[in-house]
Amino acid sequence: MLSVSRLSAERADRPLFTDLSFALNAGQCLHLRGANGAGKTSLLKMLAGLSTAQAGEITWQGKALAAWGDDYYAALHYLGHKDGLKDLLSPLANLKLAADVSGQALSEASALKTLAQAGLIRQSDLAVRTLSQGQKKRAALAKLLAISRPLWLLDEPFVALDQAAQNQLGEWIAQHTRCGGMVILTSHQALPDAIQNIIELDLSQDSAA
Ligand SMILES: Nc1ncnc2c1ncn2[C@@H]1O[C@H](COP(=O)(O)OP(=O)(O)OP(=O)(O)O)[C@@H](O)[C@H]1O
């Protein structure tokens, strides 16, 4: 379980949210909503252990993030606005590198199968810098399938994806939660129908105008 207790954050002396509390259980998907600047990306970074709040606590499996240290990163995928890909490497090489870094075995056949699922088989050997925005996004999202981690933190994952790819990602998220995984995502659009067990959290209601 991921638990957020009385979290408060401010940016440039302006409160983003105050006393924010929620919990996410295995199999659930949290849809973070809110106006531009409400603090969705800021919260996601805190949940990813990349920044800290002014007050409150985040716990993972009952233990505070600070106590987990680097071990926490092995439990999650964080996909932010930047795709986290090496531009000069291919999607295939990026995937293998990500697996190596995470210490998970990934055969060439499995990597290619994942890229095929992501609709990138014909681009698997091209340098990422030559890909379209949507193809780069698909290459980044392929890590979700290739490297098994329980918690997915996804910042606007549907942006730049065409309708088919959005539906595909919806299926991946649905499959992940069906298997007991957890997903927290930001999105300004409605989520694909395939995703069940959605909790909505609107940060606009907590932000100071
Ligand atoms: N490092 C920073 N230093 C100062 N202000 C920051 C920093 N990061 C974010 N902010 C400010 O915090 C507020 C919330 O930003 P954030 O990116 O979390 O919003 P968001 O809800 O994700 O917005 P959007 O929907 O536009 O992506 C904004 O006003 C932003 O300018």
Largest sheet: number of strands, sense, barrel closure:
5 strands, parallel
Q: What pattern of helices and strands is seen along the backbone?
A: EEEHEEHEHHHEHEE
Stretches with pLDDT under 50, minimum 5 residues: none
Query: Tally the helices: what do you get?
Result: 6
Assign the CATH architecture of the domain at 2-88 and 150-205: 3-Layer(aba) Sandwich
- As a percent range, the share of helical residues equals 25-40%
Specify the overall morphology.
globular
Give me the CATH superfamily of the domain at 2-88 and 150-205: P-loop containing nucleotide triphosphate hydrolases
- CATH class descriptor name of the domain at 2-88 and 150-205: Alpha Beta
Characterise the protein shown here:
The protein is of the alpha/beta class and 209 residues long. 31% of the residues lie in helices and 25% in strands. The chain has a domain at 2-88 and 150-205: Rossmann fold (3-Layer(aba) Sandwich), CATH 3.40.50. The chain has helices at residues 40-47, 65-68, 91-102, 108-117, 133-146, 163-178; strands spanning 2-11, 14-24, 29-33, 55-60, 63-64, 76-79, 151-155, 182-186, 198-202. The strands form two sheets. The chain has a five-stranded parallel β-sheet, with helices on both faces. It has a four-stranded antiparallel β-sheet with strand order 2-1-4-5. α3 crosses α4, α3 (91-102) runs parallel beside α5 and α4 (108-117) packs across α5. The two termini are 32 Å apart. The mean pLDDT is 94. Bound molecules: adenosine-5'-triphosphate. Residues 11-12, 16, 34, 36-42 line the site of adenosine-5'-triphosphate. Residues 2-208 form the ABC transporter domain. This is Cytochrome c biogenesis heme-transporting ATPase CcmA.
